[in-house]
Amino acid sequence: MQINPKLLDKIKEAVPSIMELGFGCEVEYTEQTQPRPLTVYENNRIVGKVVWIESKDVKMPYRKIKVDSTITTIKDIKIIGRTITLADVLLTVKNTDAEFYFKNDVSARSGTEKIVDRWNLKNNDITQQSQVLIDLLEEILL
Predict the structure, then answer these.
(1) Whole domain around residue 94: which residue ranges?
(2) pTM > 0.70
(3) Are residues 100 and 117 both part of a single domain?
């Protein structure tokens, strides 16, 4: 399934809390791998989820953060954001005044009801939704 990056950016803009650093937030960071003898360290950028953040008493950007099983400093990370949920999508629709109705729908239900009906609530993550729903969101918000 393909999600248009512009759609994700629109939702992140409408709901800024998605980009706040917190537990479960996805971040990109540098993992240093052990060199073989007589070689230099290799640095790989990888993505992981935040599981621990050091106390706010430690000055930024040197606060430590644990991502998956690696401890790094906040200065080394790039925030990707937390999971985008149904609530985020509905807030985006509300914030963009994108209230709409489908002309060929006999019941003339609102678009937000269509989104809720099609959202897979067991996997409340935009990346786990059907392509039909993603296409609908792109039609509404882009």
Answers:
(1) 5-15+83-141
(2) yes
(3) yes
